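Quick illustration for those who missed Monday's session on complexes.
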Amino acid sequence: MKFDIITIFPNIFSGFLSESLLSKAIRKKLITVKIHYLRDWTEDKHQTVDGKPYGGGPGLVFKVEPIFKAVTALKSKVKSNKSKVILFSPRGKKFNNELAKKWSKLDQLIFICGRYEGVDERVAKYVADEVISIGDYVLNGGEVAAMAVIESVSRQLPNFMHDADSASKDDHAQYTKPEVFGIKGNVLRGKGKKQKTKILRVPKVLLSGNHKKIDEWRKGNSN
Ligand code: 6GU
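Prediction with 6-chloroguanine bound:
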């Protein structure tokens, strides 16, 4: 699986890609992530990637030409038809885990990171296969969305997780040592200003060793 990211802020990605499971997946060649600087596909001296919106209004709009050139070049590098071009925009279709699973079967994902002021609509209509949003809030641009999608798609790949079934495991409430945690103070949620010691215990059923009961408890405490 190859991720090709088109952005005007390539440095946003460096910490994200160099830590933890993602860096391991890159080292193991489970995934390839390449960051591409949009200005490399401009021809003018100032490497212009945006312009004033037709019809007036504030802000600048990303031009279609550099994006089209970038996508064409990146598509031609992967000889597979299992490739998709995604434009990130708050106006897009909502991303979810089902899409992550579907996309994890592709060979190439090309991500176009717009900035929030906008991208020439011809990119959404003719260059991108899909326009995607990651939630009902506005970000400065598609970079954070791209990172969220890279991580969720990668988690669906066989061998990405340590534990074969943890990618799809339903999340349930969990506890670890200590079994009893005594706390004094007023930082506890909804407990007023009383300075009384509060004893926080791990639910007894988890210590019981009764796996049938533990599974039942987990089902009742999952997302
Ligand atoms: Cl994909 N982009 C921007 N700019 N804002 C968003 C988003 C994307 N998804 C949610 N908010």
